[in-house]
Amino acid sequence: MxxxxxxxxxxxxLRDVLQLDRYANLPAFADASMxxxxxxxxxxxxxxxxxxxxxxxxxxxxGCVWSPDFTVKTPxxxxxxxxxxxxxxxxxxxxxxxxxxxxxxxxxxxAFSEMSSSANMxxxxxxxxxxxxxxxxxxxxxxxxxxxxxxxxxxxxxAGTMNLTEPHCGTDLGLLRTKAVPQAxxxxxxxxxxxxxxxxxxxxxxxxxxxxxxxxxxxPAGVRGISLFIxxxxxxxxxxxxxxxxxxxxxxxxxxxxxxxxxTCVISHEESTGWLIGEENxxxxxxxxxxxxxxxxxxxxxxxxxxxxxxxxxxxxxxxxQGRSLTGPKNPDGPADPIIVHPDVRRxxxxxxxxxxxxxxxxxxxxxHGDLSHASPDEAVQQKGRDYMALMTPVxxxxxxxxxxxxxxxxxxxxxxxxxxxxxxxxxxxRDVRIALIYExxxxxxxxDLVGRKLAADGGRGVMxxxxxxxxxxxxxxxxxxxxxxxxLARAKAELQEATMWLMQNGLANPDNAGxxxxxxxxxxxxxxxxxxxxxxAKAALAKIAAGDADPFYQTKLTVGRxxxxxxxxxxxxxxxxxxxxxxxxxKLPAEAF
Length: 594
Prior knowledge:
This protein is an alpha+beta fold. It has 18 helices and eleven strands. Strand 4 (179-182) and strand 5 (188-198) form a beta hairpin. The longest helix has 37 residues, at 283-319. It is globular and about 80 Å long.
């Protein structure tokens, strides 16, 4: 199976659906004409399919190797591929020109990130976390820290990591014990152990910049006393080059279910030298810059692995001969028909495509709002962008990874027994994507964040703005061909609004009601969001057809979109019914009964 990057789909989304050229008058979009973007997408497709994809199975089978000298060797070919990544300038797509980046909108970088993650998820995590470290230092670093670290991180000459989790402390970061002791020269001595550090040690870059959460001596307990520190593997010398080895050690690698090509490390800080970023006891706010970027990246991984798994399943279904079509032989000269003739195989493939293409549109639409939150001169547009980024981040992360995992599971089912063997790629996609539901805050935590924080933020301004946007879209569409989409969207929006009101009335009275409803609410939100995305895509496809474009791509879009509206979207009703049952039955049994 050869991975084919979804270049055509991204061109459609950016040119026809989101109409990127509308923003050409904004400085941040000045270099992002569709001609330029199409050229970038084409080259990204070649790089990811020709350089990264062939190493995906290699990384899975070989994994990373830890040595007693605390070093880690990445799988064969990774080092050369990383050098080509840097040489091609891919790391700098969305970074600021003043630090050596190309300054393109993040919505363009998103396309490359999906392609690289589809081609090789484990490999793509190394540069993915580096950009997160870049963003955190950009947001809170001193001018000196930015000048020293950002050019090296923007070029991926140096890598970045995030050191949060400790053996006794996962999501509840208020429990962390890593300590920071101030020194006379303004540095800190960092001591503690961090676990599950992706890319914590590797042989790809000349330096690794760890961003470490720690508590300064005497700081308040809980999350109010957490600070953030830059702790490089090699302390930069006077010229900004890697100098003395810092006392940061990789004590070993985790044995994992998937993403074997990424080094997931146990990191020991033994009085490591670190530098404070931002203010004392304000580290969590800065780390959330990196964590929120990572959460969007994780949602992207759900779509990316689903895309690759779908491609493998579709190829297998067209080749595998088994049984005859219920309506008569479709391959009469052969011993059997290809299994793609069977309705239930079609169901799984259509489910996959409806989620992948709707999810890709949702990510891209959200990323564009993120760009506009910085780039637009209109304060109302900026505010809407910030509101949407906050509101949609938990939905993008959790909904797209939950559904991405289901797509990968269905792709294995399409393969039948072959999918359960290592002769086909279905197993790796399923194993690799499974971590995405867990890290950067489990999907249950994302659902709690959505109902507990994001809905009520600024008096519910974000969700009310979203509801108003959906209403305006439905009211404005009079084309009869759009009616199936607008009818389905209006119904889903009404159910989501009813669920929102139920939470407002019942969640405050009993917080367990909000907790019990949270996952169903998040899925109801995600399904509604994708209904809007399919409606936007249908409108763009109909416009192209009306203009005389005979490319079958557009009719295919309408067919897949109708399938989503009629076969997937009705799930909203069951989520609404379940969430309205509240917490009583969930909480009824005493703990010892489990």
